[in-house]
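Lecture notes, continued. The same structure-token format from the folding unit now serves as the input rather than the output. Read the line below as a description of shape only.
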């Protein structure tokens, strides 16, 4: 049964109706596209208000007279004037011009509208007949219209009609079945197929009508339709028979050879086809095949690259293996050599694998994997790795597997492969040894950065420093690997607070831009923004925004490797009192860290979140965030650069919550080195103030104020001045309090710091400062504005009427919030990491429009997310239900 009787293609029929409003309509599409079916369906519709004069051109019609006689007969038949008269007869002398005039006269004599339909016009090969047809079409009377159906465009000079808007065109893409029509065809044919199976069938056929019809023939009565569709291709017998008869065997031998020998390519150019066929002129043949709609499609505006229809390509590959099996490996090798020479590494590796040259393929992948991976093609590298035979033990692959696992976050697997790669690097040939050693060292640094295990990697850093910053013409090292090494080196140095980090990251970004590696450039710039924290905030923000803007240009703004720039930008916003902006950038960071990542970045997330919570007066939540940060810091090898600040803020928050005794007990447990830091001195002062001991507070900050206590940054000194001012205020020394506040303002002025003033609760101290005596009146006004509105209660803002849908993971965590379980205990109950629980809780707060745990529970109960009738927000997991 034909498709035209199975489904109604009303949209396509309407398109043809609109086209017929023009003088001439061309329907040009490959064989099996449904041109004739469309014309029949259009002609057979009831209520048609025009006569049809239909003719089909005979195959390989070279005789102009026979063509015109058949056309004249069709016109007469449409008018009903053939009764009693014989068909038009041929004569020894054929006057083409006179014949055109006869047809025009017959059309003019038609009562009402007439549509002339000429099917298979591509079979008309007579140049004389085509010239005469051009004259007919450009001189049609007002009551006449022509519809021309063909497999490929023929030489008709209709440009005047096109310019006048009197030429309509329906092409192959217009005739393809949509996914909906494919589903309707299957249903009408009584074929039961899943939605995924129907989509796959549509994708494999590209909506090609003949392919779908032939698939329906095969599917009818098939015992396993799903399996048939999964395996359906151009090698299917019915499709193959059709395409062999209609496309391949009708081509000249040289065209057949070109099609067969180039079928193993996903894309083909004239130059590459010349190489595989051993002949010249391939581009001309490919262009002619596309013009002939021979299942060849150009891929660029210049028409230099082409591909074959998927089903046709499947057939060609099958025929190549059947006819010339001994040539297949050699053709793959030729293609691989061409792709290597033209810098298309992935295609070169694929063809080397297809040729069965596995050692060469492993070596190629080892040489180019850094470039592919850093150019954003991690999935390509993974697919190439999986193509190697199971158990293939090529040592070159260990390094690639390590890099691929590292990019995917599989850190333990990466470490195991690195050990194998390191051993191989020591025994490989001298000409490859240095490159492999640098690659191994780079990945070890990258692995250390992801894990936060930075202690003990300084030796690797020193090893890399010389070769990667040496002469740029080091051919053995290669630009891709040098750029990767600079990024890895700078990343670790930034985490360790080493001064060369910025230089290496800048050099890496510059080199990446020079060699056209935007992915690597973005990675370097994101880390450079993080490394810029020692600079004025304006510089730090500019660098972070530059990194983010470049990433967004390529669609990478929410990738995990952007987290350093995102969280650094959030951090600077919070320090300057822009809490809402800081919250926005913090949320962007969390979205970029949907999966668990290195402890070092999550530590920063908890710190910034704790700062925000503290500044908004939610000290319990702030304490929890600082505690999470301290825990993550304890998981790192060695001491994190911000460890003292985290501990200091945690102790200070405990004291401000009214538990100075607990804070002092924690203080006494600190190691001497950490206890001597400026941040811990500040925390000790907060404890003293909470205990009513302002003199003790002054003593605690003295080493910070005189510069003898080491500090992380000058923010610690600003905080010390403010704590001293608060102590003087409690002692009744207004003059000393004002002086301390003025010194704090002076230190904060360059970057316009506001955070220390909010966290220390210095509102009364600053309000008592005479405005006419300060040199920082503008900054003071800004700080007081923030202080006056920095501590809204969580209940001050009503929850939104509509909340965003919770994910299954967030819903599972939500159900533990009414309990007394801590985040680590919830993580234990759910068998997930603490980081995952913390991320889910932040997302819950954001989606429910709340700011703390108790408000989240209250809002969830209002929405019936905690018992009662399920709310639409509670999306059920397809795998775990309500678990």
């Amino acid at each position: 049964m034909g498709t035209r009787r199975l489904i109604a293609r009303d949209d396509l029929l309407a398109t043809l109706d609109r086209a017929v409003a023009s003088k001439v309509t061309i329907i040009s599409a490959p064989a099996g596209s449904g041109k004739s079916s469309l014309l029949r369906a259009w002609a057979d519709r009831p209520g048609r208000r025009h006569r049809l004069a239909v003719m089909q051109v005979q195959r390989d019609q070279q005789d102009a007279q026979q063509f015109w006689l058949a056309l004249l007969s069709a016109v007469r038949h449409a008018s009903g004037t053939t009764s009693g008269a014989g068909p038009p007869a041929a004569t020894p002398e054929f006057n083409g011009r006179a014949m055109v005039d006869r047809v025009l006269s017959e059309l003019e004599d038609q009562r009402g509208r007439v549509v002339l339909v000429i099917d298979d016009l591509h079979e008309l090969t007579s140049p004389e007949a085509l010239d005469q047809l051009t004259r007919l079409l450009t001189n049609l009377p007002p009551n006449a219209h022509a519809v021309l159906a063909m497999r490929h465009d023929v030489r008709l000079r209709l440009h005047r009609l096109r310019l006048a808007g009197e030429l309509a065109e329906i092409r192959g893409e217009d005739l393809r079945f949509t996914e909906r029509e494919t589903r309707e065809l299957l249903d009408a044919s009584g074929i039961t197929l899943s939605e995924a199976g129907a989509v796959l069938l549509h994708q494999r056929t590209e909506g090609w009508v003949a392919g779908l019809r032939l698939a329906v023939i095969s599917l009818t009565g098939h015992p396993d339709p799903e399996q048939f569709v999964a395996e359906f291709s151009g090698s299917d017998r019915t499709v193959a028979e059709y395409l062999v008869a209609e496309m391949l065997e009708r081509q000249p031998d040289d065209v057949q050879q070109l099609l067969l020998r180039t079928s193993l390519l996903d894309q083909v150019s004239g130059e590459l086809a010349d190489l595989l066929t051993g002949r010249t002129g391939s581009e001309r043949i490919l262009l002619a095949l596309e013009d002939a709609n021979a299942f060849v499609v150009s891929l660029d505006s210049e028409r230099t690259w082409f591909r074959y229809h998927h089903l046709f390509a499947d057939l060609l590959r099958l025929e190549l293996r059947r006819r010339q099996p001994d040539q297949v490996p050699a053709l793959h090798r030729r293609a691989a050599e061409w792709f290597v020479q033209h810098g298309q590494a992935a295609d070169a590796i694929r063809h080397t694998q297809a040729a069965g040259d596995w050692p060469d393929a492993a070596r190629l992948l080892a040489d180019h994997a850094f470039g592919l991976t850093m150019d954003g093609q991690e999935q390509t590298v993974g697919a190439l790795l999986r193509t190697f035979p199971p158990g293939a033990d090529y040592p070159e692959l260990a390094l690639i597997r390590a890099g691929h696992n590292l990019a995917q976050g599989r850190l333990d697997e990466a470490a195991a492969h690195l050990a194998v790669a390191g051993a191989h690097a020591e025994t490989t040939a001298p000409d490859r040894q240095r490159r492999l050693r640098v690659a191994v060292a780079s990945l070890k640094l990258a692995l250390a950065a992801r894990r936060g295990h930075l202690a003990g990697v300084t030796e690797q850093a020193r090893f890399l420093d010389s070769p990667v910053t040496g002469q740029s013409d080091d051919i053995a090292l290669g630009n891709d690997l040098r750029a990767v090494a600079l990024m890895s080196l700078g990343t670790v140095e930034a985490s360790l607070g080493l001064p060369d980090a910025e230089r290496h990251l800048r050099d890496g970004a510059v080199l990446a831009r020079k060699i056209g590696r935007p992915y690597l450039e973005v990675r370097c710039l994101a880390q450079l923004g993080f490394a810029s924290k020692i600079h004025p905030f304006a510089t730090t923000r500019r660098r972070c925004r530059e990194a983010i803007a470049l990433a967004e240009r390529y669609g990478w703004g929410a990738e995990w490797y952007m987290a350093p720039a995102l969280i650094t930008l959030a951090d600077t916003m919070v320090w300057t009192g822009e809490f809402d902006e800081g919250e926005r950038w913090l949320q962007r960071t969390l979205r970029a860290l949907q999966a668990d990542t290195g402890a070092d970045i999550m530590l920063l997330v908890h710190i910034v979140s704790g700062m925000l919570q503290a500044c908004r007066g939610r000290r319990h939540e702030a304490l929890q965030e600082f505690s999470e940060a301290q825990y993550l810091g304890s998981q790192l090898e060695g001491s994190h650069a911000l460890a003292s600040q985290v501990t200091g803020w945690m102790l200070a928050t405990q004291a401000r919550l009214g538990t100075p005794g607990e804070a002092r007990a924690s203080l006494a447990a600190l190691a001497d080195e950490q206890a001597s830091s400026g941040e811990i001195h500040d925390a000790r002062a907060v404890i003293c103030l909470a205990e009513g001991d302002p003199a003790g507070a002054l003593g605690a900050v003295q080493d910070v104020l005189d510069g003898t206590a080491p500090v992380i940054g000058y923010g610690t000194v600003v905080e010390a001045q403010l704590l001293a001012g608060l102590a003087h205020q409690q002692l009744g020394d207004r003059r000393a309090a004002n002086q301390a506040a003025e010194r704090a303002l002076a230190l904060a002025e360059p970057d316009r710091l506001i955070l220390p003033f909010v966290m220390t609760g210095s509102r009364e101290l600053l309000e008592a400062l005479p405005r006419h005596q300060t040199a920082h009146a503008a900054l003071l006004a800004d700080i007081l504005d923030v202080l006056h509105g920095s501590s809204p209660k969580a209940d001050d803002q009503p929850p939104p009427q509509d909340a965003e849908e919770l994910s299954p993971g967030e819903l599972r965590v939500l159900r533990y919030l009414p309990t007394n379980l801590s985040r680590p205990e919830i993580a234990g109950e759910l068998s997930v990491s603490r980081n995952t629980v913390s991320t889910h809780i932040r997302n819950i707060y954001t989606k429910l429009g709340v700011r703390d745990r108790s408000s989240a529970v209250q809002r969830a109960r209002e929405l019936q997310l905690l018992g009662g009738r399920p709310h639409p927000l509670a999306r059920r997991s397809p795998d775990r239900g309500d678990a």
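Point for the exam: The chain has a mean pLDDT of 83.
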